[in-house]
Design goal:
Radius of gyration: 18 Å
CATH architecture: 3-Layer(aba) Sandwich
CATH topology: Rossmann fold
Largest sheet: 8 strands, mixed
Number of helices: 11
Structural class: alpha/beta
Shape: globular
Strand content: 15-25%
Order of helices and strands: EHHHEEEEHEHEHEHEEEEEHHEEHH
CATH class: Alpha Beta
């Protein structure tokens, strides 16, 4: 079943009270970790920015998301444009999947006036379902595309058709953000994530693909979430050129049925990056997708433990930091001599 491929559900729906207690006792919140309040103080709210979310269903009637969802919506399995949440059978009962709704709510929490185009994956057709969704995103008005799921039915490497569709998506000028996965391993240890890594360095992608890992904050210590995949040792400093980390553990957001709850996974980190990228795009509308990605990577915050910076192979460029990204973007010399990390 397609829903089994969604990365964020690998951890499942977690206990709301336990997760909230974790963030409350730490004295921080995911938005504070990323300096989102600073962006909001600059009157950035995502206005004028459109993102596409490729997922398995959306509660477009959720009162917290009605203003964000675009009238442009698509279902890859039919022509009705029905993008409603799918039912899954878990723990002896049928319930709403809620993955796409949760992802969308995270984006909206950072960029409350962003426009979200929901693209529902539906039907059976092998990897062609993914190709169709990516083609829809490429032809849409979206500036940024959120992919919080595995783009492979087999669990193996990205197929040639999906690979080409991702390249076409980047060449259409979209910034692509993909969840890095929840296997607690380096990217090269899985054929699927290794193929994403190879794609991220393809010159045709033009620096327009980011892989998102998940961070956690427990007992006063900021760490990589224990489930998150991570770059590992890559040649020529490649850890910093495509991989960024954002909060993804015990994230509270919207659920189907006008509810709220928590999920954990790199599926939750990806929309954190997308929401932040939306604010950057609003702040600097003339920047292209590659330049927005560069700002996020170049400004990411190094994570320190006992006064010592943790290595890039764990966090990639670092933890997303909107304040530094905005300040860097204000520097008129940032892009004078091209992009380099």
């Amino acid at each position: 079943m397609l829903h089994r491929l969604v990365y964020g559900l690998a951890i499942g729906i977690l206990c709301v009270s336990a997760g909230y207690k974790m963030w409350k006792e730490s004295g921080v919140s995911p938005q504070v970790v990323m300096e989102v309040p600073y962006a909001h103080e600059q009157h950035l709210d995502g206005s004028g920015v459109t993102v596409a979310v490729i997922d398995e269903g959306f509660d477009t009637l959720h009162t917290s998301l009605i203003p964000q969802f675009s009238s442009y919506r698509y279902n890859t399995g039919n022509k009705t444009r029905d993008v409603s949440e799918s039912f899954v059978f878990e723990n002896g009962t049928y319930q709403f999947d809620s993955h796409g709704t949760h992802v969308s709510g995270i984006i909206a929490s950072l960029a409350p006036k962003v426009t979200i185009i929901p693209i529902k994956l539906n039907g059976f057709g092998g990897d062609q379902v993914f190709v169709k969704a990516l083609q829809i995103a490429a032809s849409s008005p979206a500036h940024i595309v959120n992919i919080s799921m595995r783009l492979s039915f087999t669990g193996r490497e990205v197929s040639p058709n999906v690979r080409q569709a991702l390249i076409d998506l980047a060449e259409a000028g979209k910034l692509i953000v993909i969840s890095a996965g929840n296997e607690s391993q380096p990217l090269l240890h899985s054929a699927y994530t290794a193929s994403l890594l190879e794609l991220a360095h393809d010159p045709r992608i033009k620096g327009r693909m980011l892989l998102a890992g998940a961070s956690s904050y427990k007992n006063g210590i900021e760490t990589l979430a224990d489930f998150s995949n991570y770059p590992g040792h890559l040649p020529f400093g490649g850890e910093q050129s495509h991989f960024i980390t954002a909060p993804g553990d015990h994230i509270r957001s919207t659920l189907a049925g006008n509810l709220f709850g928590e999920k954990s996974g790199t599926s939750m980190a990806a929309p954190m990056v997308v929401g932040a990228a939306s604010l950057i795009k609003q702040a600097f509308p003339s920047l292209n997708a590659e330049e927005v990605a560069f700002l996020l990577l170049a400004s990411a915050r190094r994570v320190s433990l006992d006064g010592k910076d943790l290595p890039y192979f764990q966090f990639g460029a670092g933890v997303l930091n909107l304040k530094k990204a905005i300040e860097l973007g204000k520097n008129s010399l940032t892009f004078k001599d091209g992009l380099s990390l």
